């Protein structure tokens, strides 16, 4: 399975240099909290360890002793990316409202009642850190990429393939056919008459549009997996947030590849859905009480799983670094441009989803505090932004006017 996915993403990213699966990015920061370690996960085999206890580490945590949790030095290309980010001194958005904890409580089903607090937290944390200590070969349940997709992506790199030949490959996958037809008939392309010809739809979409369609089709089953009670409740919201995060990344991308930004947004929640599937396996109850420490630990582990899976799938180094930076930490992060973008887009997507489901009030001015005019426009209009707009997102006229007014005032 790992080889199939690696080949798929190598083709997806084209001829770009992919990051080796064994390469570990330079840590962007210390872990968000002191890991709740299990003896099998971190300690040497000959050393006995006490039962794990959930704690918040208020001082700067020491580096993790296990090589699977402590990334090794990065390749030179990634170091260059980090250097660029450090000179830019990018500052991330910190919402005035607790968006992260509100989103987590919401997808957890607001567990006001449940069984023993400590028992469930320890069970969940032991399982998560055991997974982090593994090589992710057999533990991660990820569906195989449909065979037609690697073949199609390979064809997209060919300069000689015809529209008819591409249509002949797409028609082998009924989900892909539906996605292509629906896309060209959306408000973005606004055809005078509905297009039902697959060949014409492929011609209208073009290569970049097809890459976006294929990416969405490939990621949907990976994220939207229905298993136990936790995943069944959370997966639809996680997939909706993933789509919005990818769209926000694509929309707000400046001076970077918008397609890579789109894929990074889709990849953000892969570790989260894996973590929820683990809850299905280790927690009998569909809900349980948890302490304030649980959410940031859970989010940090899920983010770590995302970037480690991205390593296994041989994503480019700058994508892996951006994902790794989402794991959090107690020290200031030297953000890469893509990592900074992903952080903001993820929060914007969560905020938008919470507003859509009446968990936040859209009229609350605190929602927009600290956002740029472009980011505010993205938050307010994220539901209206077309997913496959490959023409390049122009700055919104109102946002441009505000930006110019601000520069004049300075």
The mean pLDDT is 73
| Total DSSP E strands | 0
What gyration radius follows from the Cα positions, in whole Å? 22 Å
Q: Regions with pLDDT < 50 over 5+ consecutive residues?
A: 15-88, 390-410
Secondary structure category: mainly alpha
Helix and strand sequence? HHHHHHHHHHHHHHHH
Helix-residue proportion = 40-55%
Binned strand content? under 5%
* Shape verdict: globular
- Terminal CA distance reads 55 Å
Main sheet attributes: strand count, strand direction, barrel closure: none
Continuous helix count: 16
List keywords for this structure.
single chain, globular, mainly alpha, 410 residues, disordered C terminus
């Amino acid at each position: 399975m790992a080889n199939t996915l690696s080949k798929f993403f190598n083709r997806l990213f084209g001829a770009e240099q992919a990051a080796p699966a064994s390469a570990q990015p330079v840590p962007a920061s210390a872990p968000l909290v002191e890991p709740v370690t299990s003896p099998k996960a971190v300690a040497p085999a000959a050393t006995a360890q006490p039962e794990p206890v959930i704690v918040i580490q208020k001082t700067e945590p020491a580096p993790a002793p296990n090589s699977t949790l402590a990334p090794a030095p990065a390749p030179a290309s990634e170091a260059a990316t980090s250097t660029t980010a450090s000179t830019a001194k990018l500052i991330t958005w910190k919402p005035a409202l607790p968006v992260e904890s509100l989103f987590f409580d919401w997808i957890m089903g607001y567990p006001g009642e449940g069984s023993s607090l400590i028992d469930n937290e320890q069970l969940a944390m032991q399982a998560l850190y055991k997974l982090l200590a593994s090589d992710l070969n057999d533990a991660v349940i990820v569906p195989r990429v449909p065979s037609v997709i690697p073949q199609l992506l390979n064809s997209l790199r060919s300069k000689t393939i015809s529209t008819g030949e591409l249509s002949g490959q797409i028609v082998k996958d009924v989900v892909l056919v539906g996605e292509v037809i629906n896309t060209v008939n959306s408000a973005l392309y606004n055809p005078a008459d509905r297009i039902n010809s697959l060949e014409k739809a492929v011609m209208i979409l073009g290569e970049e549009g097809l890459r976006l369609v294929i990416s969405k089709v490939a990621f949907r089953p990976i994220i939207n997996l229905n298993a136990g009670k936790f995943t069944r409740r959370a997966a639809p919201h996680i997939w909706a947030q993933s789509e919005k995060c990818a769209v926000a990344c694509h929309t707000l991308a400046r001076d970077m590849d918008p397609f890579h930004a789109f894929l990074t947004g889709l990849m953000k929640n892969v570790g989260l859905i894996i973590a929820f599937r683990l809850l299905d396996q280790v927690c009998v109850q569909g809900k349980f009480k948890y302490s304030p420490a649980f959410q940031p630990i859970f989010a940090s582990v899920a983010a770590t799983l995302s970037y480690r899976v991205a390593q296994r799938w041989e994503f480019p180094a700058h994508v892996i670094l951006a994902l790794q930076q989402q794991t959090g930490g107690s020290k200031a992060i030297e953000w890469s441009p893509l990592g900074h973008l992903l952080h903001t887009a993820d929060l914007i997507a969560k905020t938008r989803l919470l507003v859509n489901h009446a968990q936040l009030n859209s009229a609350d001015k605190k929602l927009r505090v600290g956002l740029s005019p472009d980011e505010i426009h993205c938050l307010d209009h994220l539901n209206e932004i077309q997913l496959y707009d490959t023409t390049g997102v122009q700055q919104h006229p109102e946002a441009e006017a505000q930006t110019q007014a601000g520069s004049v005032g300075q």
